[in-house]
Amino acid sequence: FGKWMSREQPQATEGCVRCVLQALRAPEASEHAAVAFKNLCVHAQKQLGKLETVLALLSICEPAMVDASMSSDLRVALMEGLARLVGSLPREEQARQALEQCVGPVARMLEQTLQSLPPPTEPPTKLPREAVESCACLLSLVSSAIRFCDRFKPENHPVYPVLSSVWPGLMAVGMHCRGEPLVVQAMCELYSRAMGTLGDLIKPLLPQLLQHVVSSFQTCSVVGCLTTLRDAIERFGKDARTDEGMREMLSQCMTVIITHTCGYLASAPDAEGQPELLTAFWELQHRCLVFQPGLLLSLPCVQNLFDAAIGSVRHQEFQHTRAVLTFICLFLSPTES
Question: Is the peptide bond before 123 cis (omega within 30 degrees of 0)?
Answer without folding.
Answer: yes
